[in-house]
Design goal:
- The protein folds into two domains: 2-67, no CATH class; 80-136, no CATH class.
- The chain has five helices and five strands, in the order βαββββαααα.
- It has helices at 13-23, 58-67, 77-89, 93-113, 121-136, and strands at residues 2-8, 28-31, 34-37, 40-43, 47-53.
- It has a three-stranded antiparallel sheet, with helices on one face. The chain has a two-stranded antiparallel sheet with strand order 2-3.
- Strand 4 and strand 5 form a beta hairpin.
- The radius of gyration is 22 Å and the shape is elongated.
- It starts with a strand and ends in a 5-residue tail after the last helix.
Length: 141
């Protein structure tokens, strides 16, 4: 069974959601690799409405909410770049994605040409995925 909690507190919704899940990991159930939320959270910046399992400790939820700092998190550089790339390099995201794909091809080819250049495991994994995609969908000549 579920219960509904309504709490008044200025908040940043995604940030407080992350904080609540850190405190209450049991609100997410994983079965056969599939994750399923056992809760819901709605907020308008001032009031939070949570639907949580009946066994949830209301005092513990209130403690997380009371400790919450509503200051928005600083976006990661990747998030900032993504917005700037879309804004400045292509208003149509499809055009942007197509361009990035072509640029990635060129970058990977150039890095591989520098045989002495160190390659991170992340780059190697990315390059392998790009190679597999390119093999499935070769660029017309």
């Amino acid at each position: 069974m579920m219960k509904t909690l309504t709490l008044r507190k200025p908040h940043h919704l995604s940030k407080i959601h992350d904080e609540l899940l850190a405190a209450f990991p049991e609100w997410i159930e994983t079965t056969h690799g599939e994750r399923r939320a056992l809760h819901s959270l709605c907020g308008d910046g001032e009031t939070l409405t949570l639907s949580v399992p009946d066994a949830t400790d209301d005092v513990a939820v209130q403690a997380v909410v009371d400790a919450h700092d509503p200051t928005p998190p600083v976006p990661s550089y990747r998030d900032q770049r993504k917005v700037a790339y879309l804004d400045e390099l292509g208003a149509i995201s499809g055009d942007f994605v197509e361009t990035v794909g072509d640029v990635m091809d060129d970058l990977i080819r150039e890095v591989r040409a520098l045989a002495a250049a160190p390659v991170t495991p992340e780059f190697a994994a990315l390059a392998a995925k790009v190679d597999a995609i390119k093999d499935r969908f070769p660029k017309p000549r």
